[in-house]
What we know:
Blueprint: H1 7-18, E1 23-26, H2 33-48, E2 53-57, E3 75-76, H3 77-80, H4 82-90, E4 93-97, H5 109-114, E5 120-124, E6 134-137, H6 144-155, H7 163-176, H8 187-198, H9 203-211, H10 215-228, E7 229-232, E8 237-242, H11 244-249, E9 272-278, E10 283-289, H12 295-302, E11 306-307, E12 311-316, H13 320-333
Parallel strand pairs: 1-2, 1-4, 2-3, 4-5, 5-6, 8-9
Antiparallel strand pairs: 7-8, 9-10, 10-12, 11-12
Helix pairs in contact: 2-6, 2-7, 6-7, 7-8
Guanosine-5'-monophosphate is lined by residues 99, 101, 104, 126, 286, 305-308, 311-315.
Amino acid sequence: MKNTFETTKVIQLKALCSVSSTIAIVSHTNPDGDAIGSGIALTRFLRQAGHEVRFFVPNHFPKFLAVIPGTEEVGIYGELCDAAHDYIADADLIICSDFNQIERLDRMTEAIEANVIAPRVLIDHHLNPPEYELSFSDTDYSSTAHMVYDLIEAWGGTEAITPEIAVALYVGMVTDTGNLSYGNLTPALYRAVASLIEKGVQPLEISRAINTQSESRLRLVGYLLSEKMKVESDRHTAYITLTRAEKTRFNHQIGDTEGIVNMPLAIEGIDFSAMFIETLDCIKISFRSQGDFDVNLFARTHFNGGGHKNAAGGRFFGPMNEAVATFTRIIESVHP
Ligand code: 5GP
Ligand code: MN
């Protein structure tokens, strides 16, 4: 059986940390609960172990994630610019958490690339990981937060998990699995969840925070499902489009579209769902599937993206109607 956190690799990580005066942890653009939860947990854990650590993400995360203690310390690269750039470019060690391609760092990529000296460590659960000096990469994990949990256990035991770190890990685990409803729902995951609850996590409080939404987001969901969802039953596929004008109309805030792409999968016979979101510079596309259809491969092959087998994303550079036309042409032949 493979052991992602085998002793020799954990010793290597400890050694890398102990020779580094400053450590930068970085995670992906449009950070979600797992990016923020695993990043904060790792930051706090390494600080407790005596290291100088800062955690950066390229842009803002959804407001509800403030339920995690420590979100105020997360460096938003787009706002800090020079200070964040200098810290990352001068760091002695860079830990890449919860992403597999450097482009996922968006505008933060330049800061990482400016640092040609620091070794890279990867902690991630996506397919197609990059080659780094030290990689903890395992697609069997449903969240990077669960990986960080196992890393802490392998490093010296879960006693180091404070109630605050427990909340961060818990939020990562439950958000990346849609409240423990998809992904690799293993006994080990439930044991980790149980131990975090023993550390003081209040599941009801967290689920209330995660599921609370603004009136405008709820109305946006209603509008998209009734007016914008197209169902191609023969192709077992459904898709939704959202334009910039519609975002304005529904007072769109960061995180408001989170999870909507999963909704069409509830329709009987639908195994593939896509959501097209118009942004300033491209159409951002999310893909979800259930069963064997590999949306990571689909996103990589057709839409400059990637992700996991059942959850991936990509981008289209062109207008919305062309993105949708391209998509519907492809699904004539490629569909579950
Ligand atoms: P989402 O649809 O929630 O943005 O992303 C779903 C999954 O696909 C996430 O695990 C994310 O890491 C991955 N993903 C989303 N967009 C991209 C992209 O443009 N490139 C790659 N490589 N992965 C993506
Ligand atoms: Mn994740």
